[in-house]
Write a structure and sequence with these properties.
By secondary structure, the chain is of the alpha/beta class. Helices cover 37% and strands 17% of the residues. It has helices at residues 14-22, 44-53, 79-82, 94-99, 104-116, 130-135, 163-177, 194-198, 210-213, 215-225, and strands at residues 2-7, 33-38, 59-62, 88-91, 120-125, 146-149, 183-186, 205-208. Strand 6 (146-149), helix 7 and strand 7 (183-186) form a beta-alpha-beta unit. Helix 1 runs parallel beside helix 2 (44-53). The termini are close together. It binds 2-phosphoglycolic acid (PGA).
């Protein structure tokens, strides 16, 4: 299975989000490709409905989740609030760790919240911290997770990691979390450079920011991975 995750980050109005979905009306996918779109929280429900309405076979993910269950946590979105619409939840993105000061323990708590409701966490890790980031999840069963290796300097820079280096890191990660746990690559992925990563034989798909925002570029990426 190859996973293509569109991480829209803090981009798009509701109008732009729905127009993007409409561009994929009646799309069909190869049986071994899973496409996942992660809109901002307020649009998760709308994007999910529109995907169904337009017969677009993409799943929905959240970009983050509260580390707590429902309760007195002003501003937090608990898993129960979105579980109807999401099958996946991105956690521990380096932007969350950097700008919102999330710790490995926060990420582990978020993973637990998602797993409790049967949502698959997509856990972002980076080098040189991957070892501690993975160790913080020791109480979790790794086969229930998807990991995304995202070198910070490759994110949004237009300079991706090399497939050879990504292969080295992802192979080491799989050595720790098990060969059956999917590990994605993220950082300046495009339709042009994606096949080189897939050819390594260890990359199970991509977590994509910039290239996912434009429907045409996203379609090109899906085609390049098909
Ligand atoms: P990018 O972002 O594709 O724009 O580099 C990737 C990510 O941050 O998930």
């Amino acid at each position: 299975m190859k996973y293509l995750v569109a991480n829209w980050k803090s981009h798009k109005t509701i109008k732009q989000a729905l127009a993007w979905v409409d561009a994929f009306e009646n799309t069909t996918l190869d049986h071994d490709i899973r496409v996942i779109v992660a809109p901002a929280f307020p649009f998760i429900h709308f994007v999910h409905s529109r995907l169904e309405e337009k017969k677009v076979p993409f799943d929905v993910a959240s970009q983050d989740i509260s580390p707590f269950p429902q309760g007195a946590y002003t501003g937090a979105v608990a898993t129960e609030m979105i579980e109807k619409w999401v099958r996946y939840g991105i956690v521990g993105h380096s932007e969350r760790r950097k700008y919102f000061h999330e710790t490995n323990q926060d990420v582990a708590n978020k993973v637990t919240q998602l797993l409790d409701l049967g949502i698959t966490p997509i856990v972002c890790i980076d080098v040189p911290y991957a070892e501690q980031q993975i160790a913080a999840l020791e109480e979790v069963s790794f086969p229930r997770l998807i990991f995304a290796y995202e070198p910070v300097e490759a994110i949004g820079s237009g300079t991706p990691d090399s497939p050879d280096h990504a292969k080295e890191i992802i192979s080491a990660v799989k050595g720790k979390v098990g060969e059956l746990t999917p590990v994605l690559y993220g950082g300046s992925v495009t339709a042009e450079n994606a096949p080189g990563f897939l050819e390594t034989g260890v990359v199970d798909g991509f977590l994509v920011g910039g290239t996912s925002l434009d429907a045409e570029k996203w379609r090109d990426l899906i085609n390049a991975c098909s």
